[in-house]
Each structure stands twice: as C-alpha cells, then as structure tokens.
Write a structure and sequence with these properties.
The chain is an alpha/beta fold. It has helices spanning 12-21, 54-57, 64-68, 91-96, 114-120, 140-152; strands at residues 5-8, 28-31, 34-35, 40-42, 45-47, 60-61, 81-83, 86-89, 105-108, 130-134, 155-160, 164-169. β1 (5-8), α1 (12-21) and β2 (28-31) form a beta-alpha-beta unit.
Length: 177
C-alpha cells in the first residue's frame, strides 16, 4: 500500500524536501501553506542557521516566543529566528485535495498551535482513523478542549509519550459523517 494524503508545510526548504521525497507518488499532495480559519498571508517565525541540527531548522511558529523557549535545546536560538511570509488556507482546501475520501492519519505538529489547528478540523466532513498531536505547548484549558473535541466525535484517547496525544476512532463506521 502506498502512502496517500496531503502534507502542509509552510517553510520553503522543508516543503522542497517533501516534494522531492514524494516525487512520483501521485497519491501525495504537498502544499506550501499553513492552516488557518481563512485564506490570507501571515508571518511565521523559523529557525535558520547552518550551525543547528536539521530538526531545529524545521521548527516554525506564528509565535516567536514558542521558538525562543527552545533555547535549552538550541543555544543562541534568539539570533537564529527569522520571519517568513506564508499563505494560509482553511482545512476545507486541504480536504478538497485529498486523493480519496479516506483519511487514515491527521498528524499535527505546529509548535504551540496544535490545539487551534485541531479546533479547525472538519469532523463533520471526514473522520481520520488516527489523530496525533503535540500538547507540550498547550495551556491546561486548551489541552482539555482538544480532548473534549475529539472524544465528542467518538475517539478514544491516550498519551503518546509525555508530549503528545493519540486519538483512535472507536469504530470503522465512524470514518465519515
């Protein structure tokens, strides 16, 4: 079985790497964009330096302070943070680009915006089999709201390590509303 889906990446370098990785797989659509409530242009922050590990160069956030908190992992990060301009699109645009009506995995890793992005997902249109999102940068109220949201659509939840959550659809018949 070949992977199929839509990948969103707002940063030019990582999106180029994804396009190269999935070149020739017509079942994977790679979009250079970020998710938001509406279509518009926003200014996220990213880490840019030849002196950091590849994983650190993939960090991005609309909130500069979320990146600066990573100083314990990337010494001197403050001098490496750069501002970008990215196109934002709503989840409807992403769902419309799915190669099929089935969505196996919704993976969210958005440096502190995970709860917000999960709040935008169109559960009334499509229900992924698995949802995985980061909770380490969420306030307690936001964590609880994200858990309430997924359980209200029939998902079972469990921690995935210390920083992530995993939600699994309770039954196959819940795959589409």
């Amino acid at each position: 079985m070949r992977l199929r889906g839509v990948m969103l990446e707002p940063q030019p370098r990582p999106v180029s790497q994804l396009r190269e990785l999935y070149r020739g797989n017509e079942n994977v659509v790679v979009l250079e964009a970020a998710l938001d409530r509406e279509r518009w242009i926003r200014n996220p922050y990213t880490v840019e330096s030849d002196q950091v590990s590849k994983w650190a160069g993939g960090m991005a956030s609309f909130h500069r302070e979320h990146l600066l908190k990573q100083n314990y992992l990337v010494e001197g990060i403050k001098g490496m943070v750069r501002e970008l301009k990215v196109r934002c699109i709503p989840f409807g645009d992403v769902v419309d680009r799915l190669p099929s009506r089935r969505l196996d995995l919704l993976q969210i890793d958005a440096e502190g915006a995970d709860g917000y992005i999960l709040s935008l997902f169109l559960f009334d249109r499509i229900r992924p089999a698995i949802i995985h999102w980061e909770i380490k940068n969420m306030a307690r109220r936001e964590k609880e709201a994200s858990l309430d949201r997924v359980t209200s659509y029939g998902y079972r939840i469990a921690p995935s390590g210390q920083e992530d959550m995993l939600a699994v659809r309770a039954s196959k018949r819940d795959s589409n509303p």
